[in-house]
Design a protein that fits this description.
It holds the Pfam family CN_hydrolase. Keywords: Hydrolase. Belongs to the carbon-nitrogen hydrolase superfamily. NIT1/NIT2 family. One of its GO terms (molecular function) is hydrolase activity. InterPro entries: C-N_Hydrolase (IPR003010), C-N_Hydrolase_sf (IPR036526), UPF0012_CS (IPR001110). With about 260 residues, this protein is α/β, with parallel strands linked by helices. It has one domain: 4-Layer Sandwich (Nitrilase/N-carbamoyl-D-aminoacid amidohydrolase). Helix content is about 30%, strand content about 25%. The chain is built from eight helices and 14 strands. Helix 5 links the parallel strand 9 and strand 10. The chain is globular, with a radius of gyration of 17 Å. The protein binds ligand LYUYDEPV.
Amino acid sequence: MKIAAAQMSLRLGDVEHNYKQVEDWIRNAAQERPDIIVLPEMWNTSFYPDNIRELADEDGRRTQAFLSESAARFGVHIVGGSAAVRREGKLYNTMYVADRSGRIVSSYDKVHLFAPGHEDEKFTPGTKGCAFSLDSIPMAAVICYDVRFPEWVRMATLTGAQIIFVPAAWPASRVDHWCILNQARAIENQLFIVAVNSCGSTDSMQFGGHSMIIDPWGNVLAQGGDGEEMLCTDIDLDSVTDIRSRINIFHDRQPGLYDLT
Ligand SMILES: NC(=O)CCC(=O)C(=O)O
């Protein structure tokens, strides 16, 4: 399976520019004939302008139509990072996944909102995880700060996922955490992690890039630098069963003992 990860620089609050840019990137990535294109977090507005409430996509209608139409046009699955979405007057940081027929197969509202950046004051957290299949392969997704919560990523793994996507808008100042956490999540869950960060800067934030495609042994198959870049890599899904047969943590874990309260 071939994965393309779009590490891009987005313009804060410039929704039209960002749509055009994402459209160009999807068109260019499609020339490499990937099975899946993955976008970063909150690509419609960047993370995040003061007037986010006005700019957010009402009911995610435009985002879903755009991802669906792009996926069908280029015959590629799109894990749509996330977009700022307004539903019933509330703001959400929402991922949509479109399969190559153009069907929206999953959506996910970010559950762990980044309180140090006041995301929790503006946005409403999701209440459910995200698991879906593409080409009959089970996969899951979390968004950015979610990756700091190993229990949440383990829950996603226990759905049978072989790949977990982590779109992000992670700052350069903590890019060492980003790399280590993603690698740890791949090793401890014995699956592929496709972690796609933003790069570039806004007035107050420098995003860290260093998107990563990591195999279930923790090997980094592809890694971005600081700037814009499309990572494109083949992954061998057989390695999930191979590694789990060598060290079978899913057989050896003791879930009955994991509540000490
Ligand atoms: N967009 C985010 O969730 C930022 C997360 C972050 O900066 C961190 O966990 O550190």
